Amino acid sequence: MRVLVMLDGTHADADHPHIRVDDLGLMRGDGVFETVLVVDGQPRELGPHLDRLARSAAMLNLPAPDLAAWERVSQAVIDRWTGSGEFALKLVYTRGPEFGDGSPTAFALGMTIGPKTFTHREGGVAALTLDRGFDPSIVERAPWLLLGAKTLSYALNMAALRYAEAHGADEAIFIASDGSVLEGPTASIVLVEGDTMRTTPPTIGILPGTTQAALFRAAERSGWTTRTEPIHRDELKGAEGLFLVSSVRKVTRVHTLDGVELPDSVKLHTELSALYESEYP
Asked: Which enzyme class, named as a word (predicted)?
């Protein structure tokens, strides 16, 4: 099932074309997006997602998004959704047609979550570490690389996932040239050691994770220590638990890394999942 609403509130048929073929989001990936999890009619972390949309738009010099309008169009999709209790709400904002009047293209699309996501949530995933091809020190020197912006230019991310799948894994974890752990193609990294959760900092050129932030809030209330700091690839295999965290996948454990089985983290996964869900009573 899909529900499509344009930013101006117009309800549209998702099975019919609405984007011009010369839209720069299509032609060049010149745009930004967010994906919000909706559960039983309630969007999770919509405010942080919209804040991140605005941050990404600013990095691309797109017009500042009208966040109130995005809230309204998000609710319009939710109100029209009649499918399963959980669905993905995708917010898309592009520079618009190449020779248009300068107006951005903007819409919200409700989408069914694929069965693979639920399988991975329950059973965990095997992951490969892949070289992302940059040193984190370049982030400040080269803002035009848009490191840390959630742009529509996701060809690299999808190529990484296809490479992982072609080599017997389900997911990828990007590593910087200095050995720093970055993020997954579509997820934040969370490492657990004892009563401490760690994740990697946005300053190294990655997206600040909305779901990771929610998990850390819940963990801190329950007495966990949380840290946002650099993590080296050598630390991944020795941790008590390694997890990929994102809006739609929620908390997913990594059971195998680069062909090596990791310590059993099933019980830990259950605990972290319960912590995350406690944010949304």
From this structure: lyase
